[in-house]
Amino acid sequence: xxxxxxxxxxxxxRAGFHCGVPALDDYxxxxxxxxxxxGISTVFVLVDDAAPSKILGFHTLSAxxxxxxxxxxxxxxxxxxxxxxxxxxxxxxxxxxxRGAGLGEVLIGCAVDRxxxxxxxxxxxxxxxxxxxxKAKSFYERYGFIPYxxxxxxxxxxxx
Length: 160
Prior knowledge:
The protein is an alpha+beta fold. It has a single domain (2-158), classed as Gcn5-related N-acetyltransferase (GNAT) (Aminopeptidase, 3-Layer(aba) Sandwich), CATH 3.40.630.30. Helices cover 30% and strands 26% of the residues. It contains four helices and eight strands. The protein has helices at 22-38, 73-77, 103-119, 134-142, and strands at 2-6, 42-48, 57-66, 84-88, 92-94, 126-130, 146-147, 154-158. Strands 1, 2, 3, 4, 5, 6, 7 and 8 form an eight-stranded mixed sheet that branches. The two termini are 29 Å apart.
């Protein structure tokens, strides 16, 4: 059974993770545990409980804000005229071996669930992401993310 956990550098095999994007592999190996410890972002890993040390995918969440002028006209009408509090999913990756298995969708679902829970405790309007390329942008758009007005590779998903 798949399970999302906070990265534990002593338990989870970061060196064994390969997603095919060197920057994401390096982040998980070199920086993820440090950023967790410093409170910069929280790294969540997806594991199978049958092999709990093997990371199948990961995503990061942190606090963020977005200028209301970056959102669609429809969204702008509902919001105050100052920066709006949000969550940011800074990174999302799954192993090369799991391509086509739907783990990207599972990771987005986990992130949204976590944000909705946190939103019940702390105000936040949306989940923000920055797509690395057009393929990633299309992936996020399939799940309802909307491009910023002035930066089409940055997207948001209203949590209301």
